[in-house]
Amino acid sequence: MHVQPLVIANWKMNGSRELVNAMSSALGNQSALTEQVQVVICPPATLLPALAEQASTAGIACGAQTASAHAGGAHTGELSLSLLQEFGVSYVLVGHSERRQHYGETDADVAAKTKAIIAAGCTAVVCVGETAQQREQEQTKAVIGEQLAAALADLPDNAATKLVVAYEPVWAIGTGLTASPEQAQDVHAFIRENLKKLIKTDADLIPLLYGGSVKSDNAASLFAEQDIDGGLIGGASLVADDFIAICSAAKPA
Ligand SMILES: O=C[C@H](O)COP(=O)(O)O
């Protein structure tokens, strides 16, 4: 690990007030853990007010699953960064493969959003990853190199302190298939090298997360890899015990 471990829960379109309460209370009992591992929860936006009320007692940070690159105006259904920040959001996911595949988010959108997130003072969690077909055709690094170059173009010099990159192989998301620790480390090392070229200052400080069917029984072997600083967790972040076990696996030895 290069930095403080970071584990982010992406609840996607799942959860409830009840889950916010249960998760906040379970994490609130784990202060020794949350002092060592930065834990972030990205619930559906409607649950942010409830999460924001409990986040500091629970020792966690609030995240959003997406945000508009626009500051305001005629954008029906969208949420600006300032609206999200009113509810304590300090991390924002951008370029998740589900947004790219199902909601038409382009590399240009990802770049504009990343820039806006950092300008607002939040941390952008830029998601990259290849499809099964791209991996089979040995295009993994070419695809990820392009996604990174597009997303991180034209960022301010101090961007490293407000940036996280999450490697999520599309074929591993929600499928039960996980990249092996070696496969994940290989791509993370590639991302690390690319970041040094794209971000001039402090690129080593950028946390690199792995996401894609991380569970309590495979988290430790993934997080043991040199360039894996934590995880972006979907399904397993909806059950407090499982999520806490994953966060515990990220704790420094
Ligand atoms: O954002 C989280 C990822 O898409 C991983 O989801 P998963 O853990 O359910 O595979």
Automatic annotation (TrEMBL):
Q: Which reaction is this enzyme known to catalyze?
A: D-glyceraldehyde 3-phosphate = dihydroxyacetone phosphate
Cited Pfam families? TIM
GO cellular component terms? cytosol
Q: In which pathway does it act?
A: Carbohydrate degradation; glycolysis; D-glyceraldehyde 3-phosphate from glycerone phosphate: step 1/1; Carbohydrate biosynthesis; gluconeogenesis; Carbohydrate metabolism; erythritol degradation
Assign the protein's first listed, main location to one coarse class: cytoplasm
Q: Which residues bind substrate?
A: N10, W11, K12, G174, S213, G234, G235
Keyword presence, Isomerase: yes
The answer to whether keyword Nucleotidyltransferase applies is no
What name appears for this protein in its UniProt entry? Triosephosphate isomerase
State the SUPFAM superfamilies in the record.
Triosephosphate isomerase (TIM) (SSF51351)
Q: Name one GO biological process term.
A: glycolytic process
Q: Which Gene3D superfamilies match?
A: Aldolase class I
Signal peptide region: none
Q: Which UniProt keywords apply?
A: Cytoplasm, Gluconeogenesis, Glycolysis, Isomerase
| Primary enzyme class | isomerase
Q: Which family does it belong to?
A: Belongs to the triosephosphate isomerase family.
Organism of origin: Pseudidiomarina planktonica
Q: What does this protein do?
A: Involved in the gluconeogenesis. Catalyzes stereospecifically the conversion of dihydroxyacetone phosphate (DHAP) to D-glyceraldehyde-3-phosphate (G3P).
Q: Which GO terms describe its molecular function?
A: triose-phosphate isomerase activity
Organism domain of life: Bacteria
Q: Which residue positions are annotated as catalytic?
A: H96, E168
Q: What is its EC number?
A: 5.3.1.1
The annotated subunit structure for this chain is:
Homodimer.
